[in-house]
Amino acid sequence: DAKTTQPTSMDCAEGRAANLPCNHSTISGNEYVYWYRQIHSQGPQYIIHGLKNNETNEMASLIITEDRKSSTLILPHATLRDTAVYYCIVRPPGWGSARQLTFGSGTQLTVLP
Amino acid sequence: AAGVIQSPRHLIKEKRETATLKCYPIPRHDTVYWYQQGPGQDPQFLISFYEKMQSDKGSIPDRFSAQQFSDYHSELNMSSLELGDSALYFCASSSGTSGPNEQFFGPGTRLTVL
């Protein structure tokens, strides 16, 4: 699976958009970009995934560059409850298999009041 | 919506004892994963099962074993416990037939080995 690089930590003001970058320059053509987050000591929570097109769901938006070497997770209106470690993970799809997630160091996002 | 259930939520054991952790996946999910998260560390993959067969194996010690049963629940058996086994153990489930098969995690079992 491709390696990812994320900033160690970021702060964001409550109510503002949080933009979390991720570099994955060695991504392969069939690998998806997944974002998970982990609020302190809770189970990791799936946020969003994408292949090449930008994606949006009720939680966040995912912007993937045209060359697919980097992406940005956007939380449009951050709240204090969004304080968590955010993980960007790249891996192939898992049709008919059980491919694990490889968690890197992630970005500690702190939303400030 | 139904989520992944793990039991027990907390477990305290002595060194060299055994422990069994249970995981009940989301209904209709056929794939189960186990992860270990030590203090201050990121989750590390241990083992996974797809349709009751072992699929992938990560950094799981030989002292640990796991299986997935006919109702798709899974158990992680840990023997000869060591102090270093103290960690959060997460189970996740997914549907192996749903494309990118995002994983949904349970609340975890906190194991403390004294």
Keywords for this entry:
heterodimer, A: 113 residues, mainly beta, five-stranded mixed sheet, B: 114 residues, seven-stranded mixed sheet, four-stranded antiparallel sheet, 50% strand
Task: Describe this protein's structure.
The complex is a heterodimer of chains A (113) and B (114). By secondary structure, chain A is mainly β. Helices cover 0% and strands 44% of the residues of chain A. Chain A is globular. Chain B has 114 residues and is mostly beta strands. In chain B, 0% of the residues lie in helices and 50% in strands. Chain B has strands at 5-7, 10-13, 19-24, 31-37, 44-50, 53-57, 64-68, 74-78, 87-94, 104-105, 109-113. In chain B, strands 2, 4, 5, 6, 9, 10 and 11 form a seven-stranded mixed sheet that branches. A four-stranded antiparallel sheet of chain B has the order 1-3-8-7, with no helix packed on it. Chain B is globular. The N and C termini of chain B lie far apart (36 Å). The chains are: A mainly beta (113), B mainly beta (114).
Summarize the structure.
The complex is a heterodimer of chains A (113) and B (114). With 113 residues, chain A is mostly beta strands.
Using the CA coordinates, give the radius of gyration of chain B: 13 Å
H-E string of chain A: EEEEEEEEE
The residue-averaged pLDDT of chain B reads 93
Summarize the main sheet of chain A: 5 strands, mixed
Q: How many beta-strand elements of chain B?
A: 11
Element string of chain B (H = helix, E = strand):
EEEEEEEEEEE
Give the overall silhouette of chain B: globular
DSSP strand content of chain A: 35-45%
| Mean model confidence by pLDDT of chain A | 92
Strand order in space, largest sheet of chain A: 1-9-8-3-4
Q: Which structural class fits the helix and strand makeup of chain A?
A: mainly beta
Tally of helical runs of chain B: 0
Number of helices of chain A: 0
Proportion of strand residues of chain B: over 45%
Helix content of chain A: under 10%
